[in-house]
């Protein structure tokens, strides 16, 4: 019976990965079940993936830094401030994009689940 529960958790994690955009790896089963993490991942895939690698992929970022690198560059409070600045003024080559307070919190929750190193293959 316990093996069946673990199998169901694995299946749920696999299905969560299918919901992401192509080339974007879903976060682990534990944090991925957290609604803010899921909303943050969805926002990143929808609004940021055109210029940033938003998952754990090794693919080249078109213009901006990889999200897994941002996670180690900024703490949660710094990320909140950065998203506010970006929303109002943009950043370097990045144009201003509308990021609401809740969206910023969700993005931070998602970024905090990313590892700085790619997962082993």
Protein described:
Residues 1-29 have low confidence and may be disordered. The chain is 55% helix and 0% strand. The longest helix is centred in the N-terminal third of the chain and has 17 residues, at 2-18. The chain is mainly α and 121 residues long. It has 6 helices and no strands. The two termini are 30 Å apart.
Give a short synopsis of this structure.
With 121 residues, the protein is mostly helical.
Key terms:
121 residues; mainly alpha; 6 helices; disordered N terminus
Give the secondary structure arrangement, pairings included.
Blueprint: H1 2-18, H2 29-32, H3 35-48, H4 67-73, H5 76-89, H6 101-111
Helix pairs in contact: 3-6, 5-6
The description of the largest β-sheet is: none
The proportion of residues forming helix, as a percent range, comes to 55-70%
Give Rg in angstroms.
15 Å
Based on secondary structure, the structural category is mainly alpha
How many separate helices? Answer: 6
The counted number of beta strands is 0
Question: Averaged pLDDT, please?
Answer: 74
Q: What's the shape?
A: globular
Distance between the ends: 30 Å
Report the portion of residues in β strands.
under 5%
The ordered H/E elements are HHHHHH
Low-confidence stretches: 1-29
């Amino acid at each position: 019976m316990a093996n069946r529960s673990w199998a169901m958790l694995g299946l749920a994690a696999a299905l969560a990965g299918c919901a992401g955009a192509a080339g974007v790896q879903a976060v682990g089963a534990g944090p991925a079940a957290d609604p803010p993490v899921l909303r943050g991942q969805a926002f990143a895939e929808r609004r940021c993936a055109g210029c940033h690698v938003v998952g754990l992929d090794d693919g080249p970022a078109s213009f901006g830094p990889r999200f897994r690198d941002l996670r180690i560059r900024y703490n949660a409070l710094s990320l909140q401030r950065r998203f506010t600045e970006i929303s109002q003024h943009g950043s370097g080559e990045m144009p201003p994009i509308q990021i609401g307070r809740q969206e910023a919190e969700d993005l931070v929750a998602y970024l905090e689940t990313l590892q700085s190193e790619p997962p082993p293959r």
